[in-house]
Amino acid sequence: MQITRRAALGTAIAVPTLATPALAQGWQPTRPLRLVVTYPPGGVNDIVGRIIAEPMSRELGHPVVVENRAGAGGNIGTVAVAQAEADGYTILFGTTAMFGVNPILYANSGVDAVRDFTSLGTIGEVANILSVVPDRVRATNIQEFVAEAKSRPLVYGSVGNGSSSHLSATVFLRMAGIEATHVPYRGSSPLVAALLAKEVDFGFDTTATSTAQIRAGAIRPLAVTTTRRASALPDVPTMIEAGLPGFDLGVWFNLAVAKRTPAPIVARLTEALEKSRDALTAQRLGTAFVEPLIVPREQNQSFVAQSAARWQEIARQANLRID
């Protein structure tokens, strides 16, 4: 994925659902807004949601209050936002999973994020890291790891069936021509605990939740799933650098509202998000081991749709099932 960091302020709007700047000035909130994070408090989604809510509050002149609506891999909260009144006061904190995997896992939920939401813009991106347990795996790079995996059975953990962690592993195993037994856990914390307890040989987890343990030497990183190295772990190569051409599975975050939201409201919220993605926000994201990701306004909808389509195809190939 080609990452664009330049600010989108002043860029002409090329998305039909958005209004002109003049119309954008016609709507201003008069009360607090809700930002629905569809995962529990304390995880990377919650952290990034709260980071962006603060400057959004300043830009809009009213509090943007984070509301955690967890369950069903984020689908419960997604459905709730889709069904809420489309008046701009309920915003979805979106993730790759909601747009790219959940429509496959929850085909009968009545909601499809690409179809039913308008993306206001991206916020940041994290890589998943292939990390191994030093006492269980000898390999120190991808080539050694593939050779070791071909010589004996290995077990890997993920943060759950259908997660980006799980799908990153399935793509890696297929491209590397190896097999391993999958043990799904219910979130990053249980997976990291399993790695530390030496219950599995390796796992894929995000930079946001693995970096501290990697820096402490408790787990050994072999490669990241994005096309650029993680700034928090600059010595860890990408999968492409490690010999797997085309491997690009970053996990991004965005804000979105229901598709039926009036265009002037969408434009005003988009403008507020753009102004919120400043240097201080980038610094705070970096502290959480999240890379800032700014897709220009005119490319935003196509970026989301193309990324979602790619993840959906991976999910189909993996023959996913709900836990």
List keywords for this structure.
323 residues; alpha/beta; D-Maltodextrin-Binding Protein, domain 2; 2 domains; 6-stranded mixed sheet; 5-stranded mixed sheet; 13 helices; disordered N terminus
SSE layout:
Elements: H1 21-24, E1 33-37, H2 44-60, E2 64-68, H3 75-83, E3 90-95, H4 96-100, H5 102-105, H6 113-116, E4 117-126, E5 128-132, H7 142-151, E6 155-158, H8 164-176, E7 181-184, H9 188-196, E8 202-206, H10 207-215, E9 220-224, E10 251-258, H11 263-276, H12 279-287, E11 291-292, H13 300-317
Helix pairs in contact: 2-11
Low-pLDDT stretches: 1-24
- The CATH architecture assignment of the largest domain turns out to be 3-Layer(aba) Sandwich
Q: How far is the first residue's CA from the last residue's CA?
A: 30 Å
Q: What fraction, in percent, of the residue positions are helical?
A: 25-40%
Signal peptide: 1-24
Protein name: Tripartite tricarboxylate transporter substrate binding protein
Pfam families: TctC (PF03401)
InterPro entries: BUG, Bug_dom1
Summarize the structure.
By secondary structure, the protein is of the alpha/beta class.
